[in-house]
Amino acid sequence: MRQFIAMDDYRANRQSERPAYQWATPEPLTQQSHAAPYPMDALPGIIGGAIREVVEIVKCPAALAANSALSVLATACQGVANIKPNPRLKKPSPLSLIMVTIGDPNERKSAADDFFSEEIGEWCDTKTQELEPDLRAYKAEFASWNAQKRGLEKAIESAASKGDPASLQKMQEAQEKLVWLEQNEPAKVYTPKMTTKDATPEGIAKHCMNKWPSLCNMAAEAGAVFGGHGMAKDKAMRNFSRINEMWEAGKIEVTRSNEEDSFTLTGARFSMGLAIQPDLIREFFETNGRGATGSGFFGRWLLSFPETTQGTRMEDVETLLTESETPNIEKFRKQLHEILEQQYTNGKGGKFDNLPTLQLSREALEIWVKYLNSVESALGAGCDFEGEGKIAGKNPNSAARLAGLFHLFNGGHVLDAISGETMRAACRLAGWHLYEARRFFGEIALPKDDIEAVKLDTWLIAECKATGSNAVGKTSAMQRVTPASLRKVDKLNKALDTLERANRIRQTKEGKIAVIEVNPALLEGGK
Questions:
Q1: Predicted model pTM
Q2: Using CA atoms in the order 238, 244, 250, 254, what is the torsion angle rounded to 10 degrees?
């Protein structure tokens, strides 16, 4: 308490003793950039019309509604076709996407998701009901098949233990029947369920193998995804790789000591449509940022960090009592239904092994190559994405995937070539997401030392506003600062040095008391 009294006495007399300290303008600790307007005109036909109607009703950020719609499109179309923008590559790419929106929990993502994903849920329920007789028949056939298999295995074991010629003859006959039985296992009936909100990468892989080979993790509160036990530091790298493989429609092999728990997954498709709060993604990045970046996990995201609409979402009674006209949403649902029927035809055997590959027209290929080259050149020294290959490298591939979704969903046949107009729209949208990713890395995904400086800065400003002062004793800060990780001399000093270089604080001494003074501009609402 004496320390605070001494500081109060000092502050009361300081102005009369010497001129006020001349503060330089505080520099921001993050880029503090603003989102560019969402390119709604890059969303063609039914897609753009439906998104506009949802934004009007829900009053959410346009990027958030668009991410919901695109996640649903990827879920449906990823089981219909692949795409190979570079004809010289051997493997085509699936049409799967990873859409991530960063924002507060009250941005109404769940409401936007409902408009776009409801048709998937209803279609899956209806299809499951239609398949119920087939499913019951399969279960009966499989039970009979399994009983025959167990009986033959026991007969072989019994005959082998006896060893006499008659028993060996019976064993051979049983082996021949068992071989035939293994080759004629009843065809499994797969009932589609295409969305989940909380599943581990291994759980997703098992779902795709045993239930339906197309899945989307759609979470309006993705803290469970990024904060779950599957993303603990000791497991995260393995799971990053597994999600990356599923995004590529690659082969997933899980080996366990118990052979029954081991499995191999092929021919599956997986997308993600997530929303997460800035603080949670920051914590995730602190723990797993290096691994996620190094594995290419972030590079597969189409990320948005939209300005909030909170505070502007006013309603009036007359509007609420008037039924909304949503012709584009209805068209969206109808088209989605047709795409889902195509997916069912392709995936009812449990895999998507022989999907057609969408082709690009000459014009579309020229536009895609131009975009690819522009992204590549932006990675050069002094350019927009210097050193940012971790977020830019996969973006041109995502542009091609978007073009495939636009093509299919707006009525294009799988055998028709993607037009230049469609590819131009897809590249524009992918480019917008690329710059949003740069904002993310500039404002949230900071190096750990910079994150600690941001946290200290926030605490100091809050403390000064609470006390009506512009100074905090360093000893007090050491004892009380949050997070507690900053209550170590070396960490606190490093963070203070960062803030001082940015003209946000200055460190002084009043007698024997070390004092941290906060730039008054920050206490007047400056950033």
A1: 0.79
A2: 20
